[in-house]
Structures are given as C-alpha cells and as structure tokens.
Amino acid sequence: MTQHVSHFDLHTHSTRSDGVMLPGDVVARAALRGVKAIALTDHDDISGLAEARVAADAAGIRLIDGVEISVSWQGHTLHVVGLAVDPQNSVLVYGLRRNRGGRNGRAALIAAGLAKVGIENALEGANAYVTNPELVSRAHFARFLVETGRVRNTQAAFDRYLGEGKPGYAPHLWASLAESVEWIAAAGGIAVIAHPGRYKLDDRTRAALLGEFRDLGGVGIEVVTGSHTPDQYGYWAKRASEFGLLGSVGSDFHGPRESYKDLGDLPPLPSGCPPIWTRL
Ligand code: AMP
Ligand code: MN
Ligand code: MN
Ligand code: MN
Fold first, then answer.
1. pLDDT 10s digits, 75-134
2. What is the pTM for the complete model shown?
3. Residue 244: exposed, middle, or buried by beta-carbon count in 10 A (0-12, 13-18, 19+)?
4. N or C terminus of the chain with fewer C-beta within 10 Å?
5. CB distance 42 to ligand 1 below 6 Å
6. Atom 6, ligand 1: residue with shortest CA distance
7. How far apart are CA 249 and CA 5, in angstroms?
8. 1 C-alpha to ligand 2 centroid (Å)
C-alpha cells in the first residue's frame, strides 16, 4: 500500500527541546520517509539547526531553519512557529534565551505542585529525561509520570496533573505575541500560529487573536497538523482565508512513540487554501 507523504513537514522537535531523537536523526528519518523539506522547530531553542543542516545536506533534502516560541496572550499560552529564520540573528537569539531562562524556575514550581499531591522527587524524575539543560518541558514531567505508573499515557498526565488548573500546573509569563513576531521578523523569518485548534478560545477571542496576529505581521496558521483532527482542517482553512493568512502543514513530531503523526504523515491542505511554502 502506498501511503501519502507530505513533501513539507514544517513543525518538528528534537532532543534540543522535548523530542526524543537527535536533530540529525530527525532529518534523516524525514528523508527516508520521503519528506523533501523539513523545518526543525524546537521549543524556544535553535541550537539543533547546525546539526540538522549537516544531515539535510547529506540526505539531499531541504532544511528550513525554524523555532517554536512560547507566548502568553490574554492569559493563554500559545505557540508561534518561526520559519526561515536566521539562527545568528541577535534579536532572536537573545529573545529565545530570555524565554528559556524562566523554564528552570517554572520546573521547580511544577515539582512543588506535584509534591503537594504526593508525587515526590518529580524534578529529578523529569530531569532524567531532559536532553537540553536549558529546556525542561512539561513533556519531560509527563514522561516521568507515565514511566512511574502514575498515569497510563501522556494525555492522562496532562489531563490529571500538568494541564492548566491541575496540581502540577505553574502559570508562567512567556514572550508577548508582538515580541514573538518581532523576533522572527528581525531574523528574516515568517511567523505562523501553531496548532490553533488546541487553544480553548471562544469565537470572539479567536477572531481577536487572528486579527491581531495578522496586524502584527504574522503570515500563516497551521491548518494540517498532528494536533488537529481531520474534521478541523476545513475549519482552519476557512479561518486562514478569512484573515488573509497562509496555511501551514506540520506533524509536531516528537518521536516515533511520542507523536500521533510520524514525519510527513500529513494529508494535503484543503483545496483553495494557499500554502505557506510560496513564501519560503
Ligand atoms: P511546555 O512548553 O513546557 O509547557 O510544554 C509543552 C509541551 O508539552 C508540548 O510541546 C507538548 O510536547 C507537550 N504537551 C502539551 N499538552 C499536551 C497534551 N495535551 N498531550 C500531550 N502532550 C502535550
Ligand atoms: Mn513539545
Ligand atoms: Mn506546540
Ligand atoms: Mn511543537
């Protein structure tokens, strides 16, 4: 059986954030699967791009330098992907450094919250999975909670412990939406709202977000992503056209067993949705 593989996968993670494969291995796997252009988009970090580029050149596929920036907007946490950024740009480098800087303190608060409900030593537990000391993520806590049998799977770890309002949730102030777009633009890249279907926003707030993002210079939203169900693709394609935004496609791959979608395992954009790669 032949399986459809998207030529573009514009959202992926490596061990430089909370993925489980080395940057070079992510790229090599993408090439083997038939992906022609991959963006490595680690959380708040671009330190994997040099290694990814070596692997992309060796495999003969295109690497788009990327990043996924954590953002606080009207009390919500959002993710903004930057594509085709210059990893040497100092505005981006310092901005990301600032965003990463809060993560260790936040991890201590997460561990303290978990201790209150009887889960001891969660910081040490999470750290056992951390592969970039500047980048402890809730995904590392989730692995600890699954591996020690507190929950059956990652989703349950977020539902019971790590999601907003749960015992291991620590509110945190990330970059503003404007800053994320500014950092990306300063580095010559284009800004894309990651997995918009994941945010719990009412219709008005959603429209306010998309309008504000576009007015700040944002260019795209993810339409086809591992975080959307197939019935959401059409909805987000319509929102993209309504707000003059381009559609992006990305698996949000974190590892072979960590993700719903493997690299490139993505259907085409709905017809009539202009793709972001015309700008790449
Ligand atoms: P952080 O940036 O530390 O808040 O961690 C966010 C990461 O946690 C995401 O990039 C995912 O890897 C993971 N994550 C968040 N929510 C979920 C969820 N509901 N199920 C599985 N993984 C999640
Ligand atoms: Mn992640
Ligand atoms: Mn994300
Ligand atoms: Mn992601």
1. 999 999 999 999 999 999 999 999 999 999 999 999 999 999 999 999 999 999 999 999
2. 0.98
3. exposed
4. N
5. no
6. 138
7. 12
8. 31
